[in-house]
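call fold(seq) -> tokens
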Amino acid sequence: MLVQRIESLVRTAVFKSANALVGFLLQDAVDRADAAFVPKPKQQRKGRETLNVKGLFGVFKLQRDYYYHAGKKQGHYPADSALGLEIGYTPALARLMCLEGADEPSYLQAEEHLREIGGIEVSARQIQRVVQRVGKDAQLWQEREVIANQCNQTDASVFYVSADGTGAPMRKTELKGRNGKQADGSSKTRQAYLGCVFTQHGVDKDGHPIRDWQSTTYVSTFSSISHFGPMLRREAFRRGMGSAKQVVLLIDGAEGLGNMGKDCFKDAVQIVDFYHAMEHAGKVIDALLGGKGHPKRKERLRHWSRGLLKNQVASLVAKAQKEAQAVGRDEEVEKELGYFHNNLDRMKYGTFRKKGFFIGSGVIEAGCKTVIGTRCKQSGMFWSLIGAEHVLALRCIHTSRRLNHYWEYRLNNHAARNDSLPLAA
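ret:
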């Protein structure tokens, strides 16, 4: 108890000293920003106003100038933009709130985490408010256009692009008129697309591919596949796809993703994930044997696995069709074989392995579970569309190790509001 008391007293003293110093420095920065501000045409200074700003070391009262544009009916605080304040929170605290709000399983847990770890009292509702404000801009940042001088170069032997979709539970208002897999034809979820890019420089001693350390970056959206494809393509170009020796697109065989590959990554080698191929092989075998409980099911699956890894998919399909005719299950088997008919060229696993390529989409599958699932698919959760999209944007940026880049961009955008050069603004 004595040690805890001493630690508490020391922390209180440190916080009080830091609070006084930070408050003085903030007000000095505000005064400098106001003095340097050049108002735009028709902006009139209305005087000074007080703002309670919350930061890592407490609450500060700041006096700053207020300007008003009568024609636009729009107010402006130059110091707020210069300092990058977010609804009365300092950039450092706003960044921490966004990190916790997007990373923790709920906003309530984010509130508790901030209180327990940093002694910072911010309500869950305020954390949500800041996350949604910043997350909107984060989503636009993910979708930004490619700038030539911001594209990286890569010397990787293989450059991978992968994509998948997963359903996130939504409020009823977000699901009106949408078809789904429920018994009544309705839907409980909306499709979230997740894309990733990573690189490979070589293989291990057994010839297995090795993903480069911390080379994976992510982008996400709830928009259509026609919007998601170009968005993922821009991310790939930013990462260096233009200079890559070999580009590989890893997907699960879904028709929409296959078409996206043709439209946005036409020069890439497309590979259907081996796990999904075996999953569909199991469905073919079940259709042939009349169910999952047949004693020869595992043996037949091993046969398909060995055949697929030897580029024998066409032979396996032909044998399945012949057997289906013999047992009178043509229709059921042909339905399941459709997956293989549509993906024959993407299932040359023997060739892909010899070239040292990944044949599994474990990276994007894991991303769907960690980036999307652990935050948006918890028990009892029902999201608004923009609420989930903004959270996922921040999670992708964090998982991609780009928080510094994003917040630098955001602070520059704040400061740009004080620019007097765009006279038409």
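The chain is about 50% helix and 15% strand.
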